[in-house]
Specification:
It is a single chain. The longest helix has 22 residues, at 20-41. 21% of the residues are buried. This protein is 60% helix and 9% strand. It has one domain (3-99). A two-stranded antiparallel ribbon has the order 1-2. The protein is mainly alpha-helical. Strand 1 and strand 2 form a beta hairpin.
Amino acid sequence: MEMAEAQQRALDILRRTPGTEEQARGVWKVIFEMIGDRAESATPKLKYYEVHHQREHARLAMLTAIAEGKNLTQADVAAREAVGLPVQIIQAGEVPVVRVRQRPPQPAS
């Protein structure tokens, strides 16, 4: 599925339920920032176009998941997995919560 088609189908689905579009924007903001944070701490530094490519790849994965009828948690996981961000799903009652696995501290060199 191409970006424009995935985006339109996902927006149509999200707009059916009030508040869902805002929730999706919140999920995307976290992923967007995680990609940026990872890029800033990378050695050697990533080029702008490399970061942009990762963000677009994650965005397409998230929108495609929503367009295919998956819920926001599944779309979040799809986006994170598409670019290798850490994911751990914990069920809190019936509300799925996405938590980021923290990497152990690296020894100073």
